[in-house]
Amino acid sequence: MIKLERVSYAYHDKFPAVSDVSLEINRGDKVAIIGANGCGKSTLLQIMGGLRYPSKGRFLFGGAEVSERSLREKGFLKLFRKSVGYVFQDSDIQLFSPTVLDELLYGPLQLDIGEEEAMARTLEVMQMLNIEHLKDRPSHMLSGGEKKKVAIGSILTMNPQVLLLDEPTNGLDPKTQSFLMELIFTLNEAGKTLIIGTHDLSLVEELQTNVAVLSEEHRLERMGEAKEILRDEDLLLKVNLIHEHIHRHDQVTHKHIHSHYLFHRH
Mean of the pLDDT values across residues 184-196? Predict the structure, then answer.
């Protein structure tokens, strides 16, 4: 479904963000793109969402190249925007409509879905996300977790095949994180393709995704299953997702691996 062929991207043509990344993702896959802050996760997701275009290489969706030129073609633009949904890390960037109801209706109406069908989808999604009571509220009157649910809802009403989630658990309370993980499982079981950018290793462990590891040089360092990647401490140290603590007790030096998301292991 998604194919990146030696994709590179540089901001202002001189600050590398993604370097020579090749990646294939099939329909129904659940993939986490992991790496330290600044490694290029968000940029890569934005390329797959058609929000940025590769400086070099090609991005193909369903065998067709996605480019500035192809997205000027109304037929392909509509197909792509209907098929791929992007949820921003910062929900405030995504939400702009007067109320939650308007927010969820906006996407389907832009895709020329009839008002009756758009409203039916919106009510169904609000019920699924348990946000019916928020339908008349503006986004500035929502909590962080509520904003995240509305942002996801505004994508789900378009019923995309692919969901791109950028740091989906960032800043959420434990209850909302748990709800979001259950939602990800449910959507994947329903056949959706899920691509998640994160540095939260506990999320990767919980979801048991396939994993693409980006290095701090913005390259694809490794691709593998979650259980294989998470037990490779040398790899995680190399890409700066965990680090080593060294300390002394009396004359004895102790060394252990540390991560904000994994238990300490001595």
Answer: 94
| Cα 13 to the center of its chain, rounded Å | 25
Burial annotation 125-149 (CB, 10 A radius, 16+ → b, else e)? bbebbebeebbebebeebeebbbbb
The two structure tokens encoding residue 122? 């919106």
Whose tokens are 């405030």? That residue is 92
Mean pLDDT of the chain: 89
Residue 189 amino acid letter: E
Task: Give the DSSP per-residue string, 172-213.
Answer: --HHHHHHHHHHHHHHHHTT-EEEEEE--HHHHHHHT-EEEE
| Token reading at 78 | 């509509």
Q: Structure tokens of 23?
A: 């990646």
Question: What per-residue confidence (pLDDT) applies to 248?
Answer: 53
SS3 262: coil
**Residue 160 gets which letter from DSSP?**
-
Q: What is the DSSP letter of 145?
A: H
Asked if the model's pLDDT at residue 261 lies above 50, the reply is no
Q: What's the rounded Cα separation, in Å, for the pair 15 and 257?
A: 31
Give yes or no for residue 266 having a pLDDT over 80.
no
Confidence band for 169, pLDDT divided at 50, 70 and 90: confident
CA-to-CA distance for 2 and 210, rounded, in angstroms?
A: 14
Q: How is 57-116 classified by DSSP, letter by letter?
A: EEEEETTEEP-TTGGGSHHHHHHHHHHEEEE-SSHHHH--SSSHHHHHHHHHHHTT--HH
Distance between CA atoms of 148 and 200, rounded to whole angstroms?
A: 17
